[in-house]
Amino acid sequence: MPQSPQENGPAGSRSHTDSGGGHPCPPLENGRAESRSRTGPEHGFTNAIVHAFLHSNLSLVLILLAAAVGVAALMITPREEDPQIVVPLADVFVDFPGHSAREVEQLVAGPLEKLLYQIDGVEYVYSMSREGQAVITVRFYVGEDRERSLVKIRKRIDENLDAVPPGVTGWVVKPVEIDDVPIVTLTLRSGRSDGYTLRRVAEEVAERLAAIGNVSRAYVVGGEPRIAHVRLSADRMSAYHVSPLELQRAIAGANVTRTAGDFASRDELIRVETGEAFASSAELKDLVVGVFDERPVFLKDVATVVDGPEEVTSYVRHGWGPGRGFESHEGSAGSLIGPPGNDANTVGTGAPPGDQAEPAVTIAIAKKKGTNAVWVARDVLAACESLKRDVIPDDVEVVITRNSGLTADEKVNELIEALAVAILLVIAVLTLGLGWREALIVAVAVPVVFGLTLTVNLLFGFTINRVTLFALILSLGLLVDDPIVDVENISRHFGIRRRATRSIVQEAVAEIRPPLITATLAVIVSFLPMSFITSMMGPYMRPMALNVPV
Hints:
Layout: H1 5-8, H2 28-39, H3 45-55, H4 59-76, E1 89-95, H5 101-117, E2 122-130, E3 133-140, H6 146-158, E4 170-176, E5 184-189, H7 195-210, E6 215-221, E7 226-232, H8 234-239, H9 244-254, E8 258-265, E9 268-274, H10 281-285, E10 288-292, E11 295-298, H11 299-302, E12 303-309, E13 317-318, E14 336-337, E15 358-367, H12 373-390, E16 397-403, H13 404-433, H14 436-459, H15 466-479, H16 481-497, H17 502-527, H18 537-547
Antiparallel strand pairs: 1-3, 1-4, 2-3, 5-15, 5-16, 6-15, 7-12, 8-9, 10-11, 13-15, 14-16
Helix pairs in contact: 3-17, 4-14, 12-13, 13-14, 13-15, 14-16, 15-18, 16-17
């Protein structure tokens, strides 16, 4: 009998079986949806990306490359505890000799404060006046360009040179950097040497450490600096008809090196210099300061020259408490560089720290801007260990009292370990809930995305710090959503079709891609406003505004 159109029409396709085992195909509506999804992946940007990764032989290479780049970024990116906050700050030193602190304030500090406060971008202006000098501190708003801010200060001063009071001998604009804060401090102590001796040793060590690459400055705190005291004799000066002003001019004029000219010889330009700075107190004693009775008058004839310690301006004392002797991590604060000194009576005996505190000297080392504090600290400690064998006496102990490089490295490593534990926990949960294949996909996706994020973080000039790693930990929960939804939908399609092909993967991904993209854009939009935060919190939270959306 002839069949009805319904039986010969599309409904007849219900009796057709697929290759998966004879199960009927979905109804007509699903068949139409299936035919649309088969053509859909050929169109659209995201579908094209999925198609390219599914059918390209370079997919595995790109995954490995992204992971390798991420590892390199993790190793290369400078590490620090907190993000760098750029606050342009500068000190203006004005010399006004011969005037009291009140006169300096009224004639120099006050007018200069008002003048510098008129500069665009200035937030605060502070001043300190003392006898013969004024120090004006200019602080700009957070985020202002540092170089332009310094140019503005110098330009404003140069534009008002006609208002400078008579008697001002000069001024210096000195920028203040956050990197000027020392990352490593080394304390030299000894039960046998005094502060004057320790200071001379520390100055020699600081000069060597300042020559290390990526070290911006090294300076000494504590102890008595070396100075040549010139103690005038009024009777002898009167006898030789020499005034104190003549002595001052003679010493200042002789303690300089001047360029006398240059000449060419054998294709070389040779510069001729005259004069030489004093190298010892003996040279200072033999300085000619005048003529009397047709005979030269030497400085030793009218004054007594003493080579010795200067007046103390800063004090450093160090003592071991009852905790000495406990095991400490190498390079951490409280550990020694090299063997202990030959000072037996300073070994910890359990006495209160103040009872054993001895005069000491501290060397502070600061790094250059943008360099890795971990690497700089390692280089400094390695160089100091070499100096302990060659320059530093055996009775002097070198104690590490600060190591910000090690502290930053430990904090970053702790957060990296926490991040790794979080990833492993997510993979374990997915293995129990979805299966090991699905968990493996997420296990590959998370490190690859984090690696690319760290690379972008490096390219934008950010460091690895607690905020950066907190952003990665926060984004972990947001990151695994997309792979989980994708894998679950792909598994569902495999179960319905009873087969696994690349076209089915592409169809399954295309089916849920629009809502996933919308959800991802919502997350990005919610974190981007953090990049517009002003004041101190702006630069502090900016790594989160970059890393979470990426």
